[in-house]
Structure formats: C-alpha cells, structure tokens
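Slide 14.
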Amino acid sequence: NDQPVQAYFLAKAGAGRSLDRRGLTVAALRESLQALLTEGPERANARRVQAAYRQHDGAARAAELIAGIAG
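Slide 15: predicted structure.
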C-alpha cells in the first residue's frame, strides 16, 4: 500500500495532508476536507503538482527503463 508514502510527499509539497488514521477523529477529518476543498495554498500546490505530472509520461518512461534492463 503506497498511500502513506504518497500522502507524505503530497504533504511535503504543500498539496495535501497526511493524517494518522489511528488517532483520526471525525472533526479532524472534516476540518482537513474543508481546507482541501476551499481555495487556498494546498489547492494551488495541488494544481502545481498536477501540472508537473502532466509534463511527464510515467508509463512510457517506466517501459523504457524496463526495456533497457531487459535489453
């Protein structure tokens, strides 16, 4: 499960939040969702991350790397 890893990197980029589900409360989840769904720095950073992902074709690059190894 790579979700905690992805959450870590999104939080580090300021584009999301990583919540520890063991201590998660309804109130904390609600507050996080409201913050993420309103315009603010996290949404702006999420758009920046989205644009960066769109500039790269990850599947094609992975295929190139695999083909290079298989060679």
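Speaker note: The chain has a mean pLDDT of 92.
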